[in-house]
Automatic annotation (TrEMBL):
Gene3D superfamilies: Carbonic anhydrase (3.40.1050.10). Reversible hydration of carbon dioxide. This is Carbonic anhydrase. It comes from Rhodosorus marinus. InterPro entries: Carbonic_anhydrase, Carbonic_anhydrase_CS, Carbonic_anhydrase_sf.
Length: 255
């Protein structure tokens, strides 16, 4: 399915033959061997950044997540291709992530694991509650989109989010003593209060409303206009599946 994998497997074989050549030949700069190594390196760098140019990036991430949820994990050989020595070498001079993932800091939701991707694939920005209202966070997303030319931004929330539970508490006037955490929840309280007034203390409703709110803010950012597709998704801790929640993104995904 992912044509880049096939290219990289052949590259690994060529790398092995080059190592044998190096043992037998003493060369100067600019020799045939060094030119061949450069050619192989360029092939790796071209193949590694994207799964397949012919397939939608979101579709491929969701497909890998589906396999993860089913318990079908990438085998050792494939993992070596995506995160092994050649992958690290290919990324020494730069990165070409296929997606930005703005997600919660919750230790149960590591994007690289639930999407089964290796080094250099995801530009991950993690905060409690996957919020994107601080300059450091928004600036990170802008950097990936505007400078790394990353074409997809995924805002990923998850079920049973502790940050959203705390935000509901804040909406009722319940705040912790810690200064930074208190300020964080004070800023989250207005959205939580509006959801509570409509849906009661429904954490899942707030999770989705929060995702929609962040997606809307990113889409409205003029610096990223028409440069990246912004989608909203939610991860289910029980099933392991990622679902597209944003209506616009879902229509595009299903078309």
């Amino acid at each position: 399915m992912f044509e880049g994998w096939i290219v990289l497997c052949s590259v690994r074989q060529r790398m092995g033959s080059l190592q044998l050549m190096e043992k037998e030949t003493v060369t100067d700069k600019g020799t045939v061997m060094e030119k061949e190594i450069l050619k192989v390196r360029e092939t790796v760098m071209e193949a590694f950044p994207a799964f397949s140019k012919k397939l939608d990036t979101l579709d491929q991430l969701l497909e890998r997540n589906k396999l993860f949820a089913e318990g079908t994990l990438l085998d050792a050989k494939m993992a070596a291709v995506e995160s092994g020595v050649e992958a690290r070498k290919a990324l020494e001079e730069g990165q070409w992530p296929v997606a930005v993932v703005v997600c919660c800091s919750d230790s149960r939701v590591p994007p690289e694991v639930i999407f089964q991707v290796g080094l250099g694939k995801l530009f991950v920005v993690r905060t409690a509650g996957n919020r994107a209202d601080a300059d450091a966070i928004l600036g990170s997303v802008q950097y990936a989109v505007c400078h790394l030319k990353t074409p997809l931004v995924m805002v990923l929330g998850h079920s049973s989010c502790g940050a959203m539970k705390a935000a509901i508490g804040a909406a009722k006037g319940e705040f912790p003593e810690e200064g930074a955490l208190k300020r964080y929840l004070e800023s989250a309280a207005p959205l939580a209060k509006s959801v509570v007034e409509r849906s009661g203390e429904d954490v899942s409703a707030l999770v989705r409303e929060n995702i929609s709110n962040v997606v809307g803010g990113l889409r409205a950012d003029p610096s990223m206009a028409d440069k990246a597709r912004v989608v909203g998704c939610v991860y289910d801790l029980k099933t392991g599946l990622v679902e597209v929640t944003d209506a616009v993104a879902k229509r595009g995904h299903e078309s």
